[in-house]
Design goal:
This protein is mostly helical. Helix content is 73%, strand content 0%. The chain has one domain (26-260, 295-325).
């Protein structure tokens, strides 16, 4: 009798071990599928981006056009309107151009979802045993990685003499900008994935994204300082997440850099013969009365910028995964 009870007890222990092993195996298998799916989708998007040479070149040349053509023109205009004779507006504008590169590269990378749906690849992925959340996360990280690579290439310009020069400070700034660029890119890519998941037309995606992105871009302070704006525009800039992203990049890039030059004084416009006869009190008054606009390199504390961008990226990440998981085909 005792032998039978002992044998029964051992059988129960063996069955329990088998059940626990099966559950552990299934859990391990699901995690493996999730990580494998994320990695494959990420790797596929990175390979497609790297093999598309015209896309890479175009994404690199466009920011240079904005930086050197528009930046030089704004720098000249800034001098005319009292910004100083040696104001370095291109240096002020560079972090904004970096933010623009991250924005457009990351968001428009989500068009690959529509491309995959058009040619049936997405349908095959959705019916596979890979979790849809891992596919969406792979798409987001793929687009964010593309934007980070594009931004890292643009960071090479920081070491040129006409920008910030080659120094240890510039090197550490460039290294610090890479993870911040990735953080901003995750949020921007999530916007694209969330919208692309609900669209069926490849032609409509650029129209919708331009309608959404252009206000975000122009209200971010990438092209011009957010100073002296009307109240309604100031309010829009404060609820714009990209404005905090650009402010974050600009705060790191321009730390310890003076981009505002010496203003042209009224006294310098007076002929030397007449200026020499003026009393010292008048000369001092003319010097102090000279208008000068000082560029604001950072509006908010760096910790606040990072907190807002990180919170926005996390929220948009979950929304994008949720929207992608709702797809039926």
């Amino acid at each position: 009798m005792e032998n039978k009870m002992e044998a029964s007890r051992r059988e129960d222990e063996v069955e329990q071990v088998i059940e626990e092993s099966a559950e552990e195996y299934l859990r391990r298998t699901n995690l493996t599928r999730a990580f494998t799916g994320t990695y494959i989708v990420w790797l596929r998007d990175i390979k497609r981006f790297w093999r598309d040479t015209p896309r890479r070149v175009g994404a690199f040349v466009q920011p240079l056009i904005y930086l050197f053509l528009l930046g030089t023109g704004l720098q000249a205009a800034f001098k005319v309107f009292g910004g100083g004779s040696n104001t370095r507006y291109i240096q002020f504008m560079f972090p904004g151009i970096l933010g623009m590169t991250v924005l457009f590269t990351s968001v428009f990378s989500a068009i690959s979802i529509l491309w995959d749906r058009e040619f049936g690849f997405l349908k095959e992925v959705l019916v596979s045993p890979v979790p849809r959340s891992s596919v969406a996360f792979g798409k987001i990280m793929g687009g964010a990685s593309q934007a980070m690579i594009q931004g890292a290439i643009l960071l090479i310009l920081m070491f040129f003499p006409f920008m910030y020069g080659f120094s240890a400070s510039t090197f550490f700034k460039a290294v610090a900008l890479i993870p911040l660029t990735l953080l901003l890119a995750i949020g921007m890519t999530s916007i694209g994935v969330a919208i692309a998941s609900n669209m069926k037309s490849m032609e409509g995606f650029p129209m919708v994204m331009n309608f959404l992105l252009l206000p975000l871009f122009f209200l971010s302070g990438a092209m011009f300082p957010l100073q002296g704006l009307p109240g309604w525009m100031t309010f829009l800039t404060r609820i714009n997440p990209l404005a905090y992203g650009v402010d974050m990049l600009r705060g790191v890039t321009l730390r310890g850099v003076n981009v505002t030059g010496q203003a042209v004084t009224i006294l310098s416009k007076i002929p030397p013969q007449i200026a020499a006869k003026l009393p010292p009190e008048v000369k001092a008054a003319l010097t102090t009365a000279s208008p000068q606009m000082k560029l604001q390199t950072q509006r908010y504390p760096l910790w606040l910028d990072i907190t807002v961008v990180a919170g926005f990226s996390i929220v948009m990440l979950f929304i994008a995964i949720w929207q992608f998981s709702r797809q039926t085909r």
